[in-house]
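pinning this so it doesn't scroll away 📌
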Amino acid sequence: MADDKNEPSGFKVVDRRSFTTEGSRRDEETSEVRKPEPPSQKAARPEIIEPGMTETGEAEFSEEPTGFETLVSYLSTTTMFQLGLIAGPGGERIPPDMNNAHRTIDLLQVLQEKTKGNLTPNESRLLDDVLYELRMTFVELQKRQARKG
């Protein structure tokens, strides 16, 4: 994409400095405001629409709600990955990272403590169940490592 200095960029420039370049105090009324010119048709629409982009060039997002359940799911999946229970991107086995798994479980516990009384019964049950399962899995993996080492 070539930089064309003559085409308007659509930005509004407002000089809000209190003093002029000569050092004298600037009057509020004399500060210059340039209004943006409408962008050209060429700049308003991308030539190629990439996957995940709308015709206006904005990113498309799924309509799925991203709420509390999504956050808990994300953190629990991260913990399972850190515990070595989920294969890596190429399908290879990832060794457990017990320290970071412990930290992520602690984050879920902090989330539980900070949201106490503000969750629906389903959200509370989900968080309780996820924490219980992750803690039990963590302890089991610690026991296995202790037997091996």
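📌 and the second one:
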Amino acid sequence: MSILKIIALLNEKGGSGKSTLSINIATALHRRGEKVVLIDADPQGTARDWREASPENADLPSVVALDRPELLLSSIKAIAANWVIIDTPAKAERMSANVIRIANIALIPVQPSAADVWASAAAVKLVQSKIDVGGQIHAAFIATRVSGQTKLSKEILAGNWNEYGLPLMATAIANRVSYAQSLSDGLSVFDTTDQAAKVEIDALITELETKGWL
């Protein structure tokens, strides 16, 4: 049986793009033939609502609700999958700590705003704490809802991210209507006509593979 690998999306700030990325990363891996489960660790239930809105027979990964920290740790080993993607809640340090404890990869979405960058400090601290005690985890920031025309977007892409403790992924996720629309329709960007969005998600997967993280 293949070894289970876990990708966590986390940032203490709400609205950073965790659910959108979780859904589309999970779908991208699922459509590559991987056995994928998307865990909704957020009591708000965005991923669950997304899957419940999906059309019948949609080619999408399954979603499992594990939104209590103790339940997550006790249940994760029983999941039959090659990949688990975890969509985490905002302002939930205990859940985030448990997620980091089991994750192989942590991606921290940050929008072009100082508030997102400041909020990411808690996630960075958890990653560094795991590494400090000998734990193994790959981690990076990923820019989301980026617009090439704004000063803030340019600054976030050009910034020295290592001063915040982690590198920034080369792949950035643009501010596209298709991400929000596909989520509300219970689908992924791979079910839309937005080729640029599909390229972005595929590029992210490729970058993770190139780094040797997948």
